[in-house]
## 1
Amino acid sequence: MESASAGFRKELVSRLLHLHFKDDKTKVSGDALQLMAELLRIFVVEAAVRGVRQAQAEDTALVDVDQLEKVLPQLLLDF
């Protein structure tokens, strides 16, 4: 069983993907789910790191939505 700290559960990733599929019969392999879970984990960690750096640049002790909104455009371009 995967721990919560290991990343996103495959069931959650599958659900997120299927929300955007046009055909309800579309299937996703286990390897594809594992790859997407890892991509989501890396994306979230990178967003957190960039948010922290932005907060530090602004001499702010806490990261909030403002810092994430500032780093999001470049983050999306990088991914």
## 2
Amino acid sequence: MMPGGLSETKPATPEVQHIVNQVKPQFESKENKIYDTFEAIVYKTQVVAGINYFIKVQVCNDNYVHLKVFVSLPHENQGPSLVGFQTGKTRDDPLTYF
């Protein structure tokens, strides 16, 4: 993968679910809503000065959101940051740059 380009879509891993769990409170605060289900399904990455994760998350039976999460370089000692999201997605909506 080239720096700046998006990777292929990959199945979510435990590491990606951990990132999703860490930004869930940020998302819930912005949406002013609590989600019982918050399961990472698939993701793409973009290498920048750190990594942008584009993650499809299931929030209920047939409702999905796309999250854009920035993870800084390890030496910066900062947790993941929710930098954007798209609501009203379906399981079949492709993950794209936003």
## 3
Amino acid sequence: MYCLQWLLPVLLIPKPLNPALWFNHSMFMGFYLLSFLLERKPCTICALVFLAALFLICYSCWGNCFLYHCQDAALPHAAHDPAIVGT
């Protein structure tokens, strides 16, 4: 379970508010995970725990899934709010 200390913080990195940066964010996270899995070769249990956590976060549409954006989340409407973005 030592390798989970490098995988679990990836789930806590927030998605950018600007919708134009979502693709760049998802590509960065995908390449980071792919390079981590190829370089460090985590144990099977750690990889399964991480994939289960990623699946549950993306399935619940919690708003922090970097693979895709759920239609039910309020992030696109909040991204245009001047009080949040500061424009």
